[in-house]
Design a protein that fits this description.
- The complex is a heterodimer of chains A (about 550) and B (about 325).
- Chain A is globular and about 70 Å long.
- Chain A is built from 20 helices and 25 strands.
- In chain A, the strands form 8 sheets. Chain A has a 7-stranded mixed β-sheet with strand order 8-9-10-1-11-21-12, sandwiched between helices.
- Chain A is α+β, with helices and mostly antiparallel strands and about 550 residues long.
- Chain B has about 325 residues and is mainly α.
- Chain B has 2 domains: about 15-80, no CATH class; about 95-315, Orthogonal Bundle (MetI-like fold).
- Chain B is built from 15 helices and no strands.
- The two termini of chain B are about 25 Å apart.
- The relative contact order of chain B is 0.14.
- The chains are: A alpha+beta (about 550), B mainly alpha (about 325).
- The interface between A and B is large, with 60 and 54 residues.
Chain lengths: ~550, ~325
């Protein structure tokens, strides 16, 4: 069958009788374009990936095994089930998705689907699949594969927490022919198109789907992706090798045919200093988690640092409205005003940035609202004074004999919280920090007694706000449905990116004005790469896309 | 030795296993946290769980039962040699342990060889030398060896012998040489224990009257030590095999993490942090069983090596042996 060039695919799109969403959004005018341009400028500014530009001229070479040092063991390798970075980085190499999201422009582009059509009410999505795609076991990828995969994700239930959110309200999947698949939702679900670009909705062969969830976790998975999974030994290594028949890269990939690398080997190296030493001495090509104190050494030695903020909800404090102190809007507002985000730069990696919204810069619907997050200690103090929180002993405010003191338990590697603690002490708020194990923090949060929680949520779509703050979703605020939910509901029914951006920004303003979210800093993984590693790329949700990656001479 | 003795020792062993099982069971339940929530969250960002699904998984692992019922169910399962599956990874516990074991055994074996050679060399050197300063220096080494944090030693060795001078690989178990640095790291506290005990026992033997007799008849110090004193001194060192085994297990947790090796220690560490109750219990039981067997084997070999003990084991079983060991040890 004829090989379709990925580039011609993209250019054919507008002429296609089915109007793709990407094509739809194109005539929306200059506003969006300039927004995107501004967004990518910002991205370029903070990613600091000089290597990418240098790579532009070099000719990729084939061969070699890319050795990546991970900090933690992915307990499960099935991307349909697990939502952690360490899992999804592996899954992205093994599975493909219906669409791909351009990390620069945030546009949804063709991948295994050549084109698509979305009904005006965003309830019906029809995809035309690409021909000639096979799974790594040789079976054909057809509309039936799409149907059985998405149904399997629904069957996984809570085990596929991300997939459930994406497929929320899915009523039926129909396959009129081998290359057409139609999804019908019982309510508007605009986020679904972006969701089809995620690895959480990647595809496995029928044989893989017949296996139990546990078997798939241990690495018994076969996808359509550029790499096959050879072995997974817990706490040791994950080995992938090139799928030689691969010929259906995403339309935003830089080349065609099989991947450049012979294989990829992930080792689990829990000690940060060992990862750093191994990278410096050339024993690994990539350190997945560079400590900020090691960044300078790596740069001085001429090694690459790759970083991109995780799109989605930034690291933020989420007050639980059922708590005695957090119920007070003045206190929540004082927390927003009492944090000097500029000063936080001194304690975070230079590849990480203070929050300028509830959404990170790399989110498509991001808009800078940093004026709402300005440091205003006097304003914070006045709010607290007016609300009856009077300065007490040691400068901690109190009201009716109760100190203005809240305990925050967290598990993340977030030492900047200590500076936040000092800053809040200035306004008389006592933030008690307790770093605990993930297990303990998760359990405490599940109990629901915590007045303040800390976290983030990664997704390259503004819908993440609905997942995170929606009254019927995660809702860390324990908030009753209200104005915010009306705004968020609006975003589900339109595919117009301008409208969505405006709506999400409105939601962000409510979140900050009500103190439902106290944004702190953006989450950015900082990755160190060896001198011989080229085109080590991120996809839109800031996970690896290694199809185009290559190693030059010596490293192979 | 009589069958009765053996039977009584085995019964003791089973009681030890049962106590280890029970203690670890209740300790794990005292830990704050919920294994099912931990599994579903798995360090990820999304934390909204369908309560119905959480309940279903709870009942799958019997976590919805009252504590005594859970305990009995777990105990019955273990008696039927059903150790369950890891909550985190879904692999059977026995499989998880079996796949981690070879790497740890390899590491422990190399480490023991290094520890025996260096430990014995230090003890013998310190006993033989006539220079007081050298004896003091050698005798101080074990203390130092125990005091050095394994973690730090491992990182230092890596810094020098892998990062600065690329002689050994820093991570993994891929090449045969990969075992050297971790084995040396693990061997340091082991050799310290061996040197300490052997040195003390040699000193004890050295002041016995027969040594004077032999010296007077013209035996060289080295020959005397190797032929006469060492065999006597090895006995108390043998009683320490259990302690050494414990040291190996504890050391492997640190060493396997620093050197990114798969193994039992690493498995134990991830199981505890992930509150993977079946897996932790499996590892505890396995370690306790090996511990019991090592001690049993020691006690069985002991009378063979020291004929004085034969009478003791034949007549009065365990207690007499125990006191006798203590006596020798002191």
């Amino acid at each position: 069958m004829p090989t379709i060039s990925s580039h011609s695919l993209a250019s054919e799109q507008p002429a296609s009788p089915l109007r793709s969403a990407a094509a739809l959004s194109r005539p929306r005018g200059q506003v969006l374009l300039s927004l995107l341009a501004a967004g990518s400028l910002l991205l370029a500014g903070c990613s600091g990936n000089a290597q990418a530009e240098a790579d532009a001229g070099a000719k990729p070479q084939s061969g070699g095994t890319l050795k990546i040092a991970y900090d933690v063991d992915p307990t499960c390798l099935d991307g349909q089930q697990q939502g952690t970075n360490v899992t999804l980085n592996v899954t992205r190499q093994i599975t493909d998705s219906l669409t791909d999201q351009d990390p620069e422009t945030q546009e949804i582009k063709p991948w295994l689907a050549e084109s698509w059509d979305v009904s005006a009410n965003a309830k019906t999505f029809t995809f035309q699949l690409r021909d000639g795609v096979t799974f790594q076991d040789g079976t054909d990828f057809t509309s039936a594969s799409v149907k059985e995969n998405f149904e399997a994700i629904q069957d996984l239930g809570a085990k596929a927490s991300l997939g459930q959110t994406y497929l929320d309200g899915l009523k039926s999947i129909t396959t009129p022919d081998e290359s057409t698949v139609t999804f019908e939702f019982d309510k508007s679900n605009a986020q679904f198109l972006q969701a089809t670009s995620t690895m959480s909705l990647g595809f496995y062969s029928s044989d893989t789907l017949a296996k139990s969830a546990e078997e798939r976790c241990t690495g018994d998975i076969v996808g359509t992706g550029p790499f096959t999974l050879d072995s997974f030994v817990h706490n040791k290594a994950i080995k992938l090798s090139r799928f030689d028949d691969y010929n259906w890269p995403s339309s935003i990939a830089k080349h065609e045919g099989p991947a450049h690398l012979d294989g990829i080997e992930f080792s689990i190296v829990p000690e940060a200093s060992v990862r750093n030493g191994s990278l410096l001495s050339g024993q690994v090509d990539v350190d997945f988690s560079v400590q900020s104190q090691d960044e300078k050494t790596l740069e001085a030695q001429g090694l690459g640092i790759v970083s991109r903020p995780n799109p989605g909800v930034v690291y933020n404090l989420v007050p639980k409205l059922t708590g005695a102190i957090a119920a007070d809007k003045s206190v929540r507002r004082a927390l927003v005003k009492g944090i000097d985000r500029e000063q936080l730069k001194s304690v975070i990696s230079e590849h990480q940035a203070p929050a300028t919204s509830v959404l990170a810069k790399s989110t498509p619907e991001y808009e800078d609202v940093s004026d709402l997050l300005a440091y205003d200690p006097e304003g914070a103090k006045k709010l607290l004074d007016d609300a009856g929180w009077k300065p007490g002993e040691n400068g901690i405010r109190e009201k009716d004999g109760k100190p203005l003191s809240v305990t925050l338990t967290y598990w993340q590697d977030a030492s900047f919280l200590e500076l936040v603690q000092q800053q809040l002490r200035e306004i008389g708020f006592d933030l008690k920090l307790e770093k605990k194990s993930t297990a303990e923090v998760t359990a405490l949060q599940a109990e629901g007694k915590e007045e303040l929680t800390f976290g983030n949520l990664t997704r390259a779509d503004g819908d993440v706000l609905r997942n995170y703050f929606g009254a019927s979703e995660q809702n860390g605020n324990a908030r009753k449905p209200g104005e915010l939910d009306k705004i968020l509901a609006r975003t589900t029914s339109t595919l117009d990116e301008d409208e969505r951006t405006a709506d999400f920004t409105e939601a962000v303003k409510v979140l900050i004005d009500e103190g439902y979210s106290i944004p702190i800093v953006e989450l950015s993984g900082v990755i160190g790469t060896g001198k011989d590693v080229h085109d080590f790329n991120y996809e839109a949700s800031s996970r690896f896309q290694l199809y185009d990656a290559w190693l030059d001479g010596e490293a192979r | 030795m009589s069958l009765r003795y053996l039977a009584s020792r085995l019964t003791q062993g089973i009681i030890v296993l049962w106590i280890a099982f029970t203690l670890s069971f209740f300790l794990l339940y005292l830990l704050p946290g919920d294994p099912v929530i931990t599994m579903l969250g798995a360090g990820g960002e999304l934390q909204n769980f369908d309560p119905a699904e959480v309940e279903r998984l709870r009942s799958e692992f019997n976590l919805d039962q009252p504590l005594p019922v859970q305990y009995l169910l777990a105990l019955v399962a273990v008696l039927r040699l059903d150790f369950g599956t890891s909550i985190q990874t879904g692999t059977p516990v026995t499989e998880a342990i079996a796949s981690s074991l070879p790497s740890t055994i390899g590491l422990a074996a190399v480490a023991l060889v290094i520890a025996l050679v260096t430990g014995a060399a230090i003890a013998i050197g310190a006993t033989l030398t006539r220079r007081p300063w050298l004896r003091d220096a050698l005798a101080a080494l074990p203390g130092l060896g125990v005091a050095l944090p394994t973690f730090w030693v491992g990182l230092m060795l890596l810094q020098v012998f892998s990062f600065r001078f690329p002689i050994f690989p820093a991570i993994g178990t891929g090449t045969p040489t990969a075992v050297i640095l971790p084995a040396v790291t693990l061997a340091i506290p082991l050799s310290a224990i061996i040197a300490q005990i052997l040195f003390r026992a040699l000193q004890n033997a050295w002041i016995q009257p027969y040594v004077t007799t032999y010296t007077a008849s013209g035996y060289s110090r080295l020959r005397l030590l190797l032929r006469q004193a060492l065999p006597v001194a090895v006995l108390p060192a043998l009683t320490m095999s259990g302690v050494l085994f414990g040291q190996v297990l504890a050391g492997s947790v640190v060493v396997e993490n620093v050197f990114s090796r798969q193994g039992l220690g690493r498995l134990a560490q991830t199981a505890v942090t992930g509150q993977d109750i079946p897996l932790v219990q499996g590892i505890v039981l396995f370690a306790a069983a090996v511990f019991v067997l090592v001690n049993l084997a020691t006690d069985l070999i002991y009378p063979v090596l020291d004929p004085r003990l034969k009478a003791a084991t034949r007549n009065v079983p365990a207690d007499a042996t125990r006191t006798d060991h203590e006596g020798v040890r002191a």
